[in-house]
Design brief:
This protein has seven helices and six strands. It is α+β, with helices and mostly antiparallel strands. The strands form two sheets. A four-stranded mixed β-sheet has the order 2-1-5-6, covered by helices on one side. Strand 1, helix 1 and strand 2 form a beta-alpha-beta unit. Helix 1 packs antiparallel against helix 5, helix 1 packs across helix 7 and helix 3 runs antiparallel to helix 4. The longest helix is centred in the middle third of the chain and has 23 residues. The protein is globular.
Length: 204
Amino acid sequence: MKLYYSPGSCGLASQIALHEAGQAFDLVKVDFKTKTTVEGDYFRVTPKGFVPALKLDDGDLLTEGAVILQWIADKHPDARLLPSFGTRERYTALEWLNFVASDLHKSMAVMFSPFLDDATKKRFADGNLTSKFDYIDEHLSRNDYVLGAQFSVADAYLYNVLSWPHRVNIDITSYTNIKSFMARMNRRASVRAALAAEGLQVNG
């Protein structure tokens, strides 16, 4: 099994989930600028050209981070990375996966755009991201993890995206519950292993 990633990108969540599941896998680094890997043209792996991508042992390929996370959880039910099918808790977890993917992740991606100036990015962050941080912080004031006391793949994705603000000069240190969540996640062996594999420092 191979996980295609780029350091610090959204593939970190998939790597955390694989570690949590105890699943062996190889990491293949993707150069975002050239869209190449040690294997060659990354577009031959996936025409989307994005990470993460998970190539299974039979050659099948999964893309889209939120989908990969669900696949990992469903293939390793003993790891309890998602609630059982059909439960209300399951749909709550999927709500959060979709919120992180469609609202938080996509909004944060704007801050990395080379096509916008700093003033525009600041206006966007103030008008779009602040409300999302408020929502997350309030939720975490009552919950150690997204689903309460139980870690899930939604936490891996949330942690992944919340590790980006400092890279684009967004200060979220005033969000004390987010800060506690990040510190809690940083203590997990899966997170520390994933960060080390990508050559990243712990950032809370």
